[in-house]
Amino acid sequence: MNSTGFLEIILGPMFGGKTTQLINRYNEITDNLNSHSYSTIQPDVFTINYDKDTRYSTNQIVSHDGKTLDCNFIHELEDIDRNPKLLSKLNNSKFIFIDEAQFFKNLKNWVLYQLDHNNKHIILCGLDSDFKREKFGEILDLIPHSNKITKLTGTCSKCYNSSIYTHRISNEIEQEIIGNDKYIPVCRKCYNDLNK
């Protein structure tokens, strides 16, 4: 394992498989750690999800296809510094997994600190744009600092081509509205047709 920080970003629209990919990466890394004489030790990983994302669980990251991963639910990344138990777990972890990264304020500075000063290996996933096709959160600000980027697509709910956007089907106008029943994945053409 490289002793310098490493950043992997998984992004795309809702229903694109981002959380599934994050859980798959977690399983790959922990399986690899366990196969290299660490089998009696809990892998040194720290998982984070946004505390308002309780669509499926209040103590696990859950993908739309039902895969799960135990996690720490927090509202702000700085909350970790104010919680001695979480801070100890973070400090003793080489790997950090972050789901729903678009919701975390100060994501860029926190991630860069973990990469540059603590040499963490961070894998994060989240939306690259909101329902208006505008930048969502600070994920895109981390692209110049990333070692690996995966842009996922889903299936357009209208024409079944690849979806790259998330279309809101509810009337709320705030950027942060959580709920699978409020969005559909759409391709560029269908997004434009729905937003004329």
From TrEMBL:
PROSITE patterns (alphabetical): TK_CELLULAR_TYPE
Record field: catalytic activity: thymidine + ATP = dTMP + ADP + H(+)
Keywords recorded for this protein, A-Z: ATP-binding, DNA synthesis, Kinase, Metal-binding, Nucleotide-binding, Transferase, Zinc
Catalytic EC class: transferase
EC number: 2.7.1.21
Database matches in Pfam families: TK
Protein family membership: Belongs to the thymidine kinase family.
Protein name: thymidine kinase
Annotated organism of origin: viral metagenome
